[in-house]
Write a structure and sequence with these properties.
By secondary structure, the chain is an alpha/beta fold. About 25% of the residues lie in helices and about 25% in strands. It has a 6-stranded mixed sheet. A 6-stranded mixed sheet has the order 6-7-8-9-12-13, with helices on one face. Helix 1 runs parallel beside helix 4. The longest helix is centred in the first third of the chain and has 17 residues. The protein is globular and about 55 Å long.
Length: about 300
C-alpha cells in the first residue's frame, strides 16, 4: 500500500521564494504522517493568475500587464534549477512530489510563461515536466502553448504516474496518450471545482482504469496579500472563497475513495494500492483489449517544438 497526500493549502500568493518554503514544509508535514506521494494543484507555484478571469479584456489591459509582470518575476526557471528547494525536500524525505508550477523558459525567450506540471521522484530528480497543451480562454493572455514532449507516464518510487492539467482532461486524445503507457496514478491538477469537474475525475478513473487524483488550490480572499495591486477591485468580498479546492481521489473503475475536501484547508490523505489499476483493466482497457486499432489509431508527436534552431 502507498499513502498519498493531496495539498489543499494556498501558496504565498505570487511569491515564489516563500511559496517554495511553504511547499517544503508541506513535504515534511506529509512525510511525518507516513505519506510517500504529495500532489499539489495547478500552478501552485506561485499561484493561479485568477486576475485574468476578473479583469475585462482590453479595458483593464494595463492592470493585467502589471500583475503579469509580478507573476512572471515569480515563475520557475528549470534551466536555473528553479525547483531546487522542493527537489531537496523530496530527496530528504523520500517523497514523490507532483507540483503544478508556472514556468518561464529562461533558455529560449526568457519571457513566455507556461502552465507546467513536474513529477519529482523520491531521489529528488525531475523525471517529467509537462507543459499544458492548450491554455483555456483568457489564460492565453498569460501562457504559451505547450507541446507533446511531456506527455509521458513515468516510473517513480510509488508506481507509474502521468498528469494532465485542468481542461486538458477534457481532451480525449490526450487522455488516450496517457492510458497507452500503463498508468497507475493519473494526476489532474486544476483550478476547476464543483460537481462537473468531480464527475470528470470519476469518468477518467473508470475510462482509464487508474487511480485519479484531482486537486485545485483552496483559496480565500483573506489569503491574498494586502499589498497586491488592485486587490480590492479583484476581491471586494473579504469573506469570498475564491476556490473551494475539492481535492479528491477516485479508485480504478470509478468509485470515490477519498474526499472531496470542500472549503477546507489541509492535506487529504489516502492509502492506495497502485497495482489495483492494472487489475481493474480486465473489464475495460481503453488502449488494450477494448481498442480497435484496425479502425482508430492515435499518433503523438513528442518532439520538443523549438522556434529557433542553431546549426
Amino acid at each position: 500500500m502507498t499513502k498519498i497526500a493531496v495539498v489543499q493549502q494556498p501558496p504565498v500568493y505570487l511569491d515564489l521564494e516563500k511559496s517554495l518554503e511553504r511547499a517544503a514544509e508541506l513535504v515534511a508535514e506529509a512525510a511525518a504522517q507516513g505519506a510517500q506521494l504529495l500532489v499539489f494543484p495547478e500552478v501552485w507555484l506561485p499561484g493561479y493568475p485568477t486576475f485574468v478571469w476578473r479583469f475585462a479584456p482590453g479595458k483593464d489591459m494595463g492592470k493585467t500587464d502589471e500583475l503579469f509582470a509580478i507573476s512572471q518575476a515569480n515563475s520557475v526557471d528549470l534551466s536555473r534549477d528553479g525547483l531546487a528547494p522542493l527537489r531537496a525536500a523530496a530527496r530528504d524525505h523520500g517523497m514523490v512530489v507532483v507540483i503544478g508550477h508556472q514556468e518561464i523558459d529562461g533558455a529560449v525567450s526568457g519571457s513566455t510563461l507556461f502552465n507546467s506540471c513536474a513529477i519529482i521522484d523520491a531521489d529528488g530528480r525531475i523525471v517529467n515536466n509537462h507543459r499544458k497543451l492548450m491554455p483555456t480562454n483568457p489564460e492565453r493572455m498569460v501562457w504559451g502553448f505547450g507541446d507533446g514532449a511531456g506527455l509521458n507516464v513515468v516510473d517513480t518510487a510509488v508506481g507509474r504516474i502521468g498528469s494532465l492539467i485542468c481542461w486538458e482532461n477534457y481532451m480525449p486524445l490526450a487522455r488516450a496518450a496517457l492510458y497507452a503507457q500503463n498508468i497507475d496514478i493519473y494526476v489532474a491538477p486544476t483550478w476547476d471545482s464543483g460537481d462537473t469537474w468531480l464527475a470528470t475525475m470519476q469518468h477518467i478513473a473508470r475510462e482509464g482504469g487508474c487511480w485519479v487524483i484531482g486537486c485545485a488550490t483552496a483559496l480565500e480572499a483573506s489569503d491574498i496579500p494586502e499589498n497586491l495591486p488592485h486587490r480590492d477591485t479583484l476581491f471586494p468580498d473579504p469573506e469570498e472563497w475564491i476556490n473551494p479546492g475539492d481535492a479528491v481521489v477516485y479508485k480504478p473503475f470509478g468509485s470515490t475513495f477519498a474526499g472531496p475536501m470542500h472549503r477546507e484547508k489541509g492535506l487529504l490523505y489516502a492509502e492506495i494500492d497502485p497495482a489495483a489499476a492494472r487489475a481493474s483493466r480486465r473489464k475495460f482497457d481503453a488502449t488494450g483489449h477494448y481498442a480497435r486499432p484496425d479502425v482508430f489509431t492515435l499518433e503523438v508527436n513528442r518532439a520538443p517544438q523549438r522556434p529557433v534552431t542553431y546549426r
